[in-house]
Specification:
By secondary structure, the protein is α/β, with parallel strands linked by helices. It has two domains: 194 residues, no CATH class; 137 residues, Rhodanese-like domain (Oxidized Rhodanese, domain 1, 3-Layer(aba) Sandwich). It contains 16 helices and eight strands. The strands form two sheets. It has a six-stranded mixed sheet with strand order 1-6-8-5-2-4. A two-stranded antiparallel sheet has the order 3-7. Helix 2 packs across helix 8. The longest helix has 26 residues. It is elongated. It is found in: Cell membrane. Its main location: membrane. This is Rhodanese domain-containing protein. Keywords: Cell membrane, Membrane, Transmembrane, Transmembrane helix. It is a multi-pass membrane protein.
Length: 347
């Protein structure tokens, strides 16, 4: 049981709020909202001053956001691409933030504080744009102030219920600090499970870029299918050698040309639910053991293996596809994989 005296809360409460919000804004999966709620209760008990806690929370958020914004200015799109490769959810949030910025402008910096997942992605994304630092921090200050005020007032408004909760917790030998630590651990566990589920939409074994290079050398190499959506092809205007472009929802065109091939390498770009569906479709069509290429196309290129440019004629369709691509890509992420093909006796 963790217990702190009342004078310690008055002395260090604002500093703890600052540190908690800063850590959360830097991307470490520790929730900041529960502590703000309990800080609101402490404000009602006159153990903390509202303006001190609000200032600490806002300063912590602004400090964390400034780190990400500066990183975006320094590293540009490389940082965003690196973040997008961390997991499926991050990639989706990056595209969502881009779409919102294109539609509403820098005002999304303030609104994003109330949208789970966007609060961390938006600052580095804004750093890669032409939005000035002054405009960014003006909107950011407005957003973090409104965000911190909302949760502090929420704690004050529901003071009676939170106090009853604390009494019940103490009755079982715990303290409010124990509850906060337990919530942080549960939240961390949830994020880890979510990350694992998103990265493992269906069971995958793997093959290294070196292994894939060996597979491409025999007289009958595997067929490589590129099923990435058009926005992804525009962002990454290169591909693996000897690629055949296919649409994600029209795999029938592969059948005739795949009968003679023992193995098929393909690139798919769905979210985790679509990946499950596509995996089943591939199995129904004869694709058996599914193996992911470790590191995907990026790892292949980093090893120094050859890549082919995307044909220039596709660039001419970019203007026509931009609007529809933005909508279609809002729920898509990149997953590159390899699967083996089983010939049907009926063919």
């Amino acid at each position: 049981m963790i217990e702190f005296p009342a004078d310690a809360v008055a002395k260090w409460g604002s500093a703890v709020v600052f540190l908690n919000v800063l850590i959360a804004r830097l991307g470490i999966p520790i929730p900041a909202v529960p502590l703000l709620l309990f800080a609101g209760v402490a404000v009602m008990d006159h153990r903390l001053l509202f303006w001190h806690v609000l200032g600490a929370a806002a300063l912590g958020a602004l400090t964390g956001d400034s780190v990400w914004f500066t990183a975006g200015r320094i590293f540009g799109r490389r940082l965003i691409r690196g973040l997008a490769r961390l997991s499926v959810t991050v990639d989706k949030r990056v595209r969502k933030a881009r779409a919102l910025f294109a539609r509403f402008g820098p005002g999304i910096v303030a609104v994003s504080k109330f949208v789970p997942g966007l609060a961390i992605i938006t600052p580095p994304l804004m750093g890669t744009t032409r939005v000035s630092a002054a405009i960014f921090f003006a909107w950011d200050a407005l957003g973090v102030t409104a965000w911190a005020t909302f949760w502090l007032l929420g704690g004050a408004l529901f003071e009676r219920h939170l106090r009853m909760f604390i009494v019940e917790v103490r009755h079982h030998g715990w303290t409010a600090i124990d509850v906060l630590v337990a919530l942080a651990l549960l939240y961390l566990l949830y994020r880890l499970i979510q990350r694992w589920r998103m990265q493992s939409p269906f069971e995958l074994s793997s093959v290294t870029p070196e292994g894939l290079d060996e597979m491409l050398r025999p007289a009958l190499p595997p067929m490589i299918l590129d099923a990435r959506p058009e926005p992804r092809r525009q962002q990454e205007p290169y591909r693996l050698p000897r690629v055949m472009r296919v649409e994600r929802n029209s795999l029938d065109e592969v059948d005739a040309s795949s009968v003679e091939h023992n193995t098929v390498v393909y690139c798919v770009c769905p979210d985790h639910e679509t990946a499950r569906t596509l995996s089943q479709q591939m199995r129904d069509k004869g694709f058996k053991q599914v193996r992911a290429v470790k590191g995907g196309l990026d790892a292949w290129e980093r090893r120094g293996y050859a890549v082919d440019p995307v044909p220039a004629e596709r660039a001419r369709s970019r203007d026509r596809s931009d609007q529809s691509a933005e909508q279609e890509s809002s729920c898509e992420v990149t997953l590159r994989a390899i699967a083996s093909w089983r010939q049907f006796s009926s063919t």
